UniProtKB/TrEMBL annotation:
Lineage: superkingdom: Bacteria
Protein name, entry field: Thioredoxin
Pfam families, sorted: Thioredoxin
Species this chain originates from: Pontibacillus chungwhensis BH030062
InterPro entries on file: Thioredoxin-like_sf, Thioredoxin_domain
C-alpha cells in the first residue's frame, strides 16, 4: 500500500477507474497498526486495486474533506465513487466480502 502525503495524491488515486482503496490512520492508533497488515493481506488477492494509506496527522484537512471522526477508516471506491466505508472497528471478513463483490461487479 502506497503512503500518500497530499490531498492531490489521494484524489488522483480514488478518482481512477476500477477499484481503489483509501486507508486513513494516525500514528498513535494501535487499532490502525493492527488492522493495516490484515488489509494488506486481503489486498494481495486483488492486485488491480490501487491502495493508498494516509496519515490524518500529516494531512489535517482529510478529516473535513471525507467527514472522518475516528480512525482507522477503510474506504473503497469504484470508478471514482465511494462504495464502502468502515471506521474504528473494521471487520476484515466483511471488508473482504465487499471487496470481492465489488471486484466481480467491476470486472463483469
Amino acid at each position: 500500500m502506497k503512503h500518500v502525503q497530499t490531498m492531490e495524491e489521494i484524489h488522483s488515486t480514488i478518482g481512477q477507474d476500477g477499484l481503489n482503496l483509501l486507508y486513513i490512520s494516525r500514528p498513535g492508533c494501535s487499532v490502525c497498526h493492527a488492522l493495516l497488515p490484515q488489509i494488506d493481506e486481503v489486498l494481495e488477492q486483488y492486485p488491480a486495486v490501487q491502495a493508498v494509506h494516509a496519515d490524518a496527522d500529516e494531512i489535517p484537512e482529510i478529516a473535513g474533506e471525507f467527514s472522518i471522526f475516528t480512525v482507522p477508516v477503510v474506504m473503497v471506491y469504484a470508478d471514482g465513487k465511494e462504495q464502502f466505508r468502515k471506521a474504528r472497528f473494521v471487520p476484515v471478513d466483511e471488508f473482504e466480502e465487499q471487496l470481492a463483490k465489488l471486484n466481480r461487479l467491476i470486472n463483469e
